[in-house]
Amino acid sequence: MKMENLTGAAKLDIPFYQAAGDEVAVFEHAWKNRLPLLIKGPTGCGKTRFVAHMAARLGLPLHTVACHDDLTAADLVGRHLIGDGRTVWCDGPLTRAVREGGICYLDEVVEARKDTTVVLHPLADDRRILPIDRTGELLEAPPSFMLVVSYNPGYQNLLKGMKPSTRQRFVSVRFDFPRAEQEEAILIGETACPPDLARRLVTIAGALRALKDRDLEEAASTRLLIYAALLIKDGMDPVAACRVGIVESLTDDAEVAEALMEVVSATFGR
């Protein structure tokens, strides 16, 4: 389905997303060819929003899972639950996505326990099957089903990395923070803030991102810029909004925070 063919009402239901490159075409080609997709990029650069946008664009149900250290294969596939004196099988989000022919999106997949990859492998190759050992079912994914996973390469270490045997089952696309003019368009599209404010916030982000790996563990994300823009648009002082919306979310070090605030103050002429 192409955006040009969507009705005005349908477009309103699609989450806003400003494409930075050919990622929309890559997603559509992968889906049409029944290929799983791996998205890698820094925190807050638009990975989750992109998947939500594409699911709505294609008219598919979306099941999103925020992966964590305690996430197991059973959390994805399902488990038996006891209720009203009987045992009932309850599908997990991965199983529901397969049954519905939707998209299952595993956010920060490397955070999940290693046994989850055993479940993903047969869905992420040409078999496209989901064995459910506890019920004896063998589900074949319908043509519309798509598996999408993401992670932040900056958080990887020897214990939390994606194995080559898993990585090479996916079509992969790399995300990064958008170019200045694109990021300004995102802020305006998300918050309806004035163009001058968008430009100032993007200028601040550029200066703060230059400090990553020196004074900051993580770069200022587009998400944080949106938070600041919303606060300012609601009447909050711009410098104060940038402190709570951007700076304090980047560091716990008081001296570093004050150094970052100097950049903010200079940008707003304080």
TrEMBL record:
Molecular function as annotated in GO: ATP binding; ATP hydrolysis activity
Keywords: ATP-binding, Nucleotide-binding
Xref: PANTHER family: DENITRIFICATION REGULATORY PROTEIN NIRQ, MOXR FAMILY PROTEIN
Family: Belongs to the CbbQ/NirQ/NorQ/GpvN family.
Keyword Cytoplasm: no
Domain spans labelled ATPase dynein-related AAA: 36-170
UniProt key word ATP-binding: yes
Protein name per the record: ATPase AAA
Residue ranges occupied by any CbbQ/NirQ/NorQ C-terminal domain in the UniProt entry: 183-266
